[in-house]
């Protein structure tokens, strides 16, 4: 489907006039005017196009997003104000009588008034939630439109000298509509929904978000980009607390000096319409991805894992996985083999009935998922991983991926397939044991990533001061929703998809930061977090979960055990500010 059609279908009618005028920009490019004899593209034409694109269309979208988001925040605050008298009345009713002795109590709303307020707030929350979803869709489709029209310009009117796509990406990296974090606002809405419903329906107070997280084992994942200039310092900060771990699916042990970090290969699946990609970019409920993954070279006969991950919420997912031998992968994809031998082996090992059934379910689910969605291997991601973790201690798990390369693995173009359609992987790569930087791969089939990818997984979202310091330092660039699968598809199949991840424009900027500027941004961010958490504190009736509180002890040693690095100087500044 052409992007112009996609844009028309995506328009939210009340905001129609505020979208990028894609048709007008195409007209300025004279893309569809094939009857015109003189197709000369003058400097005046170029200036008029760029002015309309950046000064008019981009400015229009930016201003609309900014004003709409502020209105949503104002509407949210108004709902909190309406609920405040009810929240205070609930707290006073639950508190011991002596707690309020001598205190002047404000009159509580009557039962009828309370119900009216709660119903009105719930109705308004539904409208706010709907508008937030529409605003996110609005931002994404406009972001994609700017990238698409810039590419059209470069193809028809550009060249190495007059290419504007990098300039457009750079401009968009600075505007809020492509990097707005809606999470704090959603957290406030969630608290009000919970409070209003339990008071309207008379239910016992359920566990707050903070309490429910503390009551179960879960991991909170934080993702960052690391500029190669900062990579060594980041590694040394981590390895002073956590040892480098040999990354192997069967064993875990501390790495020895002679060992190299292993390479990891993932082959991702999708269909010719890139349905799985679109679902993931648009954050659809139960968006899934499917991949084959192994460590090292395929010629070394590594264990190959079939893995399906389904996102349930922003921080939780359901995983299904099982090992499969090389020779069975293609028949499994085609539905000719159903892992009978593997099931038989497990049955003979006296595996528990529950584990055996789970294994069978994973096999059946993944095979039907392939068939129902017409999936094929489309993308290879290859990278080198350094892992940090105390063996046997999973409270903190950190990985750093470098030399990240994406390679087309598809057979979508029947005339020029990148992969033999009758095979599950590219033998020109694996038989030749190609490695980074994959110089033999044809142009257009390879994309590399300029930064290292840092991933920090913390059990139960526990705070560690040294991790908090690292995450908020100038050494890393936050990339909360970064996905290798999404980035690879967006980089190599941009003509096949009509939606892009917001982080693409950020790649055009220098992610290195001045330490002082980064520190000031951190303080402003924490102040904003505190304000948002304070707004819902009375509704949650529990201590707000703030990242600004002192961290816990490191899994290895004390967080105060620091050397003369940047983080030392940063800690000194924080101490001075608190004094």
Query: How many domains?
Result: 2
Report the CATH C-level class of the largest domain: Alpha Beta
Helical content class:
40-55%
Overall pLDDT confidence? 83
Membrane topology: Multi-pass membrane protein
GO cellular component, one term: fungal-type vacuole membrane
Organism: Aureobasidium melanogenum
Keywords: Membrane, Transmembrane, Transmembrane helix, Vacuole
Secondary structure topology:
Blueprint: H1 3-10, H2 22-29, H3 43-94, H4 111-156, H5 165-172, H6 183-201, H7 209-214, E1 219-226, H8 231-239, E2 244-245, E3 263-270, H9 275-281, E4 288-295, E5 304-311, E6 317-324, H10 326-333, H11 340-348, H12 353-372, E7 376-390, E8 393-408, H13 427-430, E9 446-448, E10 452-459, H14 465-471, E11 477-478, H15 484-492, H16 515-540, H17 566-578
Antiparallel strand pairs: 1-10, 1-11, 2-7, 3-4, 3-7, 4-5, 5-6, 7-8, 8-9, 8-10
Helix pairs in contact: 2-4, 3-4, 3-6, 3-16, 4-5, 4-6, 6-16
Report a brief summary of the structure:
Its main location: membrane. With 579 residues, this protein is an alpha+beta fold.
Overview of the structural elements:
With 579 residues, the protein is an alpha+beta fold. It folds into two domains: 3-206 and 521-548; 214-513, mRNA Triphosphatase Cet1, Chain A (Alpha-Beta Barrel). The protein is built from 17 helices and eleven strands. The protein has helices spanning 3-10, 22-29, 43-94, 111-156, 165-172, 183-201, 209-214, 231-239, 275-281, 326-333, 340-348, 353-372, 427-430, 465-471, 484-492, 515-540, 566-578, and strands spanning 219-226, 244-245, 263-270, 288-295, 304-311, 317-324, 376-390, 393-408, 446-448, 452-459, 477-478. Strands 1, 2, 3, 4, 5, 6, 7, 8, 9, 10 and 11 form an eleven-stranded antiparallel sheet that branches. The longest helix has 52 residues, at 43-94.
